[in-house]
Amino acid sequence: MHCTQCGDPAEGRFCGGCGASLAELDCPTCSQPIAAGRRFCSACGSPVRIATGQGEAPAGASGAPDPAWWVAGALLVALLIVGGWAVLGSGGPQPPGAPAAMGQPGALGPAPQIDLSQMTPREAADRLYDRVMRALTARDTIEVLNFLPMAIDAYEIARPLDLDGLFHLSLLQRAALDFEGALRTAEEGLADDPDHLLNLAAAAAAAEELGDDALAERYHRRLLEVWDQERAREDRPEYREHEPALPEMRRAAERFTGGDGG
């Protein structure tokens, strides 16, 4: 038997490679049926889980969380410090240890008010993005581990994405330490509009993470060159949405280029 999600050989109720269900199950949170091959409940958004001796964890070959995600979780706090602008949403940062707006820190599973089945794919993706970003800001690693892969999947399902959606997806990929994917996604947005400030900043940050300083400098310089004309645009609601983050994007570009945008 092979998993319908990742194609790995699999047996039992869960795929050891990606955690997808191999048989139809009932959601442990809302009791709605979860079809075989799914990793998340389409009704409430809960990850597929199996019980372990110390609570619930994403399903895998041994019933333990995928080690790769624990490594990512350990590095997320560093990402908050190194790339703090990435987790700033329209509501601004929250102090460390503060409750996430859509759930309590450390809580497993979705907040009860989220019903993904009643949303369009893009609405669901944006709601999950908001939840992940708030959890990152609150340094709620468990919340991030629960919802980061689902948020990335949600944006892929919601394609084609506008420039703001590509920016969101790039940030999520960067938080998941998929820097190559984050760069590709930001550059996809820049192919549509090479002056888009958010995707310029996202591409520069991803290039820095990949150690490509020449590419990072190119994007940082472009951001500084077009800054004034882009900030004056009235047809960019995403700039207003991410207003708290924009000054740090400019400061990052100035630090990298020595303040020279020419």
Textual characterization of the structure:
- The protein starts with 24 loop residues before the first strand and ends in a 5-residue tail after the last helix.
- The radius of gyration is 19 Å and the shape is elongated.
- The protein has helices at 67-82, 121-137, 141-157, 163-175, 179-192, 197-209, 213-231, 237-241, 246-257; strands spanning 25-26, 33-34, 49-52, 55-58.
- Residues 49-113 have low confidence and may be disordered.
- The chain is mostly helical and 262 residues long.
- The strands form two sheets. Strands 1-2 form a two-stranded antiparallel ribbon. A two-stranded antiparallel sheet has the order 3-4.
- It has two domains: 1-64, no CATH class; 68-257, Alpha Horseshoe (Serine Threonine Protein Phosphatase 5, Tetratricopeptide repeat).
- The chain has nine helices and four strands; from the N terminus they run ββββααααααααα.
- Helix 4 (163-175) runs antiparallel to helix 5 (179-192), helix 6 packs across helix 9 (246-257) and helix 7 (213-231) crosses helix 9 (246-257).
- Helix content is 48%, strand content 5%.
- A hairpin with a 2-residue loop joins strand 3 and strand 4 (55-58).
